[in-house]
Amino acid sequence: MVVVSRQSLLPSFLYSTSTPSPTDHVPSSNMTGGSRVVIASPNEGKIELFSPAFYAACTVGGMLCCGITHTAVTPMDVIKCNMQIDPAKYKSTTSGFGVLVKEQGAKGLFKGWAPTLIGYSAQGAFKYGFYEYFKKYYSDIAGPEYAAKYKTLIYLAGSASAEVIADVALCPMEAVKVRVQTQPGFARGLSDGLPKIVKAEGVAGLYKGLVPLWGRQIPYTMMKFASFETIVELMYKHYIPTPKEQCSPTVQLGVSFAGGYIAGVLCAVVSHPADNLVSFLNNAKGATVGDAVKRFGVWGLLTRGLPLRILMIGTLTGTQWGIYDSFKVFVGLPTTGGGAPTPATAKA
User: Which portions of this protein are annotated as coiled-coil regions (predicted)?
Assistant: First the structure.
């Protein structure tokens, strides 16, 4: 069961929940001028929305969904990074797999899995946990009427704020990952790659790709969350004949995956030029953005490795939302998105 206070200034679009029955809506004697709404959930425990336990659950869900999915697509990531760094050698996705396996064996497809797992688990924890926090924080600042009216701006601001923090956690692992994947002989993995970078360039060497990483991840995350929330709302409004609260968990999680996949395709296109820059700058010591433009050209930055990244990010983002919402359902929380954009008001 999930317990929600009507007294909080909570626009209903933040969380779509089942419409309570007359027996669910029970006045509370210890809440002045308010009431309590009990929302049925598959879990017997109780997590109050926007409580420390709620944010902890979202943080764990984010850690799981990002860590698992990014590690699972490591082979595609290895090929993508090498196509970005050495397009003459890795000319296409198919030939790239062949070249890599021929030179390094099948194990070469999983190079960098450890920094990927650690880095993206940390990033996912901060990304999803802080997104939920900032979404509520900015909604409270705006008030229920304006938060509902400008909900897309709330999604954009909340996701951007969360990603700024999340990328600080990701950046060192991303630096190690890219070099391990694209520089044969640089290091076996995280255990020797991390100290090697620190010894050669200092701790700053782990963060030299932070600004391009922000340039890639902040637009990506803004698109990921805002488009997902919008797509899910539209799917329930126009394409799902049954109201969300009457849909089975399987249908709701299917909507989460479909909405996430579509959002992922949009994310890939928006963030791809910066993704090329991150790979190039982390691979070439002392390189600048200007050097990347000279080498690849503007069109190359926009398109090099894009088809593979669309496949990778679409699948990855859809699966992430599926895992994240599955975990939320498991702990007794509602799935994300799909709420009507009307503000909830306190009862007198």
Answer: none
- Reported as a single tens digit per residue, the pLDDT across 174-197 is 999 989 988 888 988 999 999 999
Using the 8-state DSSP alphabet, how is residue 335 labeled? Answer: P
Written as one letter, the residue type at 184 is P
Q: Cα–Cα distance between 129 and 63 in angstroms, integer?
A: 9
The tokens 């953005």 sit on which residue?
289
100-103 contacts: CB < 8 A, separation 24 or more? Answer: 103/184
- The model's pTM is 0.77
For residues 260 and 265, what is the distance between their CA atoms, to the nearest angstrom? Answer: 9
Q: What is the mean pLDDT of residues 203-207?
A: 93
CA-wise closest residue to 256 among 162, 337, 342: 337
Instruction: Identify residue 338 by its one-letter amino acid code.
Output: G
Asked if residues 197 and 170 have their Cβ atoms less than 8 Å apart, the reply is no
Please state whether beta strands 2-5 and 25-26 pair in parallel, antiparallel, or not at all (unpaired): unpaired
Pure H helices in the chain: 52-72, 74-85, 93-104, 113-142, 144-149, 151-182, 190-201, 210-234, 249-283, 289-303, 306-330
CB 167 within 8 Å of CB 123: yes
d(CA 323, CA 331) in angstroms, rounded, equals: 12
User: Tens of pLDDT along 9-42?
Assistant: 445 556 544 433 334 443 333 433 333 333 344 4
How many Cα atoms within 13 Å fall on the side-chain side of residue 268? 24
Q: How far is CA 95 from the centre of its chain?
A: 30
